[in-house]
UniProtKB/TrEMBL annotation:
Organism annotation: Gordonia terrae C-6
Entry protein name: Na+/H+-dicarboxylate symporter
Superkingdom per UniProt: Bacteria
Primary location group: membrane
A Pfam entry, by short name: SDF
Transmembrane segments: 12-30, 42-65, 77-96, 137-158, 179-202, 214-238, 288-313, 325-354, 361-381
Compartment list: Cell membrane
UniProt keyword terms in alphabetical order: Cell membrane, Membrane, Transmembrane, Transmembrane helix, Transport
Sample GO molecular function, one term: symporter activity
Record membrane topology: Multi-pass membrane protein
Gene Ontology CC entries for this record: plasma membrane
Stored InterPro entries: Na-dicarboxylate_symporter (IPR001991), Na:dicarbo_symporter_sf (IPR036458)
Length: 432
């Protein structure tokens, strides 16, 4: 009975019930659409203040700690694989077109059609990234100028804190962020009802194509995860010259926990233990790289978020420009890097991406409905990708004990204080 109280399970039940109801009653289910739209709007109204506060807090909280050779190598590999994940997601989405077949004609904002005909050069595109009035950008939910403003504000706030030692403004903005998060948690209590209504109206409108598009979306995500995983193995094998045939057995335990819990936070202690005791990475490298990986190593999330962008564009029959695609990749990577912290689960992230790129929100319901399955794929790659990056970073400094990897030697990892990672755990679970 306790399992029935889990939010993800309740949303899953709501999604399945909504699909069945919509397919049975047909077009009448459109009468429920306003309830689902209200649920989405309740999320949308929190996006702008949440992103503004989150980026400021994340930027202003940064200090000079953690720099150096190991940090550079860690970030280099993580950022590099994140870029590859975003590009791969775009390529697979163009080939497979997971959102095709569920087109919402006439449902877009009328201004989007006018904007599509006004082609601008790259100079104007970059110029529009900076708003003359940040309050105007906030009123229209134009996300990129808001993010630019928040980044600059955060940097300036960090300089002021360093100069004066007064962090009251940062504390105040952090409290605003926490209040908005509480608002989102309250909204998520009605998520099962909202998702039921969204899926019912969607299924009643487009019929069984809802199911086929969901399968194509999950299939695209699964294929991308498989390709990235193979790429990780190839790169690690080429750099370390370790036998890849030993990897499945060494990753089995953490993989099992990852896909059954869909939580990088729950899996973290096992990943840290196995990376030291089974892979042979030194404790120093493992502690640093894996803790950074909790917030910056969500390669499965980057892949999935970019597929979401392409899915929504295809479902809404929106032609994305090169600039739009680049912006989508940038937002997916920024979400991964922890610069934009959008907690509250996948519904908030999907809504944020759609709002940022002026994409139709009608298809968000189907993505929410199958997100538990997508979360399995994301977490699998997030967790194992961190281990691979730790191997690459350790190899550069000869910090891999090859006897441990080849099962000729036994070492014991240090115990960790889980409470020290509470913040990172929360951000990692948001990415999962």
């Amino acid at each position: 009975m306790k399992a029935l109280k889990h939010p993800a399970l309740q949303i899953g039940f709501g999604a399945i019930a909504g699909l069945i109801f919509g397919l049975v009653v047909g077009e009448w289910a459109a009468n429920l659409k306003f309830i689902g739209d209200m649920f989405i709007r309740l999320i949308q109204m929190s996006i702008v203040p949440l992103v503004l506060a989150s980026v400021i807090v994340a930027t202003a909280s940064m200090s000079g700690a953690g720099t150096g050779r190991i940090a550079f190598r860690t970030v280099k590999w993580m950022l590099g694989f994140a870029v590859v994940a975003a590009v791969l997601a775009w390529g697979l989405s163009v080939l497979i077109r997971p959102g095709a077949g569920m087109v919402f004609d006439g449902e877009l904002d009328p201004t989007l059609e006018d904007e599509a005909g006004q082609t601008t050069g790259w100079q104007d595109t970059l110029l529009n990234f900076v708003s003359k009035n940040v309050f105007e950008a906030m009123s229209t939910a134009t996300m990129v100028p808001i993010i630019i403003f928040a980044l600059l504000f955060g940097v300036a706030l960090r300089m002021q804190i360093t100069k004066s030692g007064d962090d009251r403004v940062l504390t105040f903005i952090d409290q605003i962020q926490q209040i908005i998060l509480t608002m989102i948690r309250l909204v998520m209590y009605i998520a099962p009802i909202g998702v039921f209504c969204l899926l019912a109206s969607l299924a009643g409108d487009v019929g069984l194509s809802v199911v086929t598009t969901a399968v194509k979306y999950l299939g695209t995500t699964a294929l991308g995860v498989a390709i990235l995983f193979v790429l990780f193995v190839v790169v690690v094998t080429a750099r370390t010259r370790l036998n890849p045939a030993r990897l499945p057995g060494k990753l089995a335990e953490q993989t099992t926990i990852a896909i059954t819990t869909t939580s990088s936070a729950v899996t973290f202690p096992t990943v840290l233990k196995n990376t030291v005791e089974k892979i042979g990475v030194s404790q120093k490298i493992a502690n640093f790289t894996l803790s950074i990986g909790l917030t910056m190593g969500s390669y499965g999330a980057v892949l999935n978020y970019m597929i979401v962008v392409m899915f929504l564009a295809q479902a809404g029959n929106v032609e994305l420009s090169v600039g739009d695609i680049a912006l989508g990749m940038g937002l997916a990577i920024l979400l991964n890097m922890g610069t934009i912290t959008v907690p509250g689960g996948f519904p908030v992230i999907a809504t944020f991406l759609a709002t940022s790129l002026d994409l139709p929100l009608e298809a968000v319901g189907i993505l929410i409905a199958v997100d538990w399955f997508a979360g399995i794929f994301r977490t699998f790659l997030n967790v194992n990708g961190d281990t691979f990056v730790a191997m690459l970073v350790a190899n550069a400094d000869d910090e891999i004990d090859r006897d441990v990897y080849n099962d000729k030697k036994t070492v014991v990892s240090e115990e960790i204080d889980v409470s020290e990672y509470s913040g990172a755990f929360a951000r990692a679970d948001d990415a999962d």
